[in-house]
Structure prediction request, 89 residues.
Amino acid sequence: MELIIALDISMGKSYKVLYDGQTCLSEGEILHNKFGFQALLEEIYSLPEEPKIVFESTGIYSKPVETFCQKNNLTYFLLNPLEAKKQLE
Prediction:
């Protein structure tokens, strides 16, 4: 089992998808506020193992998510959007 939370970050919110391998376990919106991050943390703690969190660096929009991950000692991967685009080409 490899759990991954992929986040599509925009201003003030993120769209979250939780994967176990290729299988989508859940999805939904997370607001970048105390309640949204608390709900995400509770979901993470309810999982059988700690997921890897993956998101694209979007400057000031991704900073709250990065801070959340650091504050809670969560494993996260910050993708460079220009490098990701080059990999696809």
The longest strand covers residues 23-31.
